Amino acid sequence: MPARRTAALLLLLTVLTSCARGGAREEGRTASSPSALPPTTSAPSPVADPTDAAWLQLMIPMDEQAVTLLGLAAEKADPRLRAWAARLRTAQTTELAELRKLRDRMGLPDTDLHKGHDMPGMVTAADLDDARTAEGSAFDRLLVAEIRDHLRQSEQVSRSETTAGTRAEATARARALVTARGEQLADLAALCAGKAADVPEPFACPSDHPV
C-alpha cells in the first residue's frame, strides 16, 4: 500500500508538470502569433519551470495541513508524543516559511491548487475533523499515522524534484527537505522503539505502516 500511494503521488506530480508545460507552450504560441497585441506594461518575470512549480505548489499545502494537525497535539496527544510533535511543528513551520518565500521569488500564485484533494501524504480536512473529535489513543494513532505518511510522501516527491527540477534554489530546497525528512522519520522510529532521549518508554505506534 505505501508503495502504491507513493507511485500515485509521483504520477500526480508528473501530470501537473505536463499540464503546466502545455500551458506554457500555449502561452508562448499566443505571444508569438502575429495577432498578439504588444505588451503595454513591463515584462513579467520569467515563467517558473513547471516541475519546480508543481513540486512547490504541492509541498506548501502538505506542510500547512501537517502543521495544523501537529498543533492539535499540544493538548490532545499522549505526553510522550507532545515534545516530538512540538519539535516537528517548529521545524515544519520554519520550512513552510522558506517554501513560501521561494514561491514568491518564483512569481507563483498563493492559491492552493490541491484544496479538497485526497492525495497521498496530504492531511485532509476530513482528517483534521477526525483529529479534533478523537480522544486518547485514537488521536495518538491518527497523529502518528498521518504525520508518518506525510513525512514519507513529501520525502519521495522532493527526491524526485532534486533530479527533475531545474531551478537551483528549488532543487537545493528539495535536497534540504529530503535530508530533514530522513532525520524526522528517524526521530519517529526512535520514539516508537523507546530510544528517544526524552521518551525512554516505548510508545505504541501504529504498526500497519512501520517506520
Automatic annotation (TrEMBL):
Positions with biased composition (Low complexity): 30-49
Segments forming domain DUF305: 52-190
InterPro entries: DUF305_CopM-like, Ferritin-like
Region (Disordered): 22-49
UniProt-listed Pfam families: DUF305
First and last residue of the signal peptide: 1-20
Transmembrane domains' residue ranges: none
Keywords linked to the UniProt accession: Signal
Name of the protein: DUF305 domain-containing protein
Organism: Streptomyces sp. NBC_00148
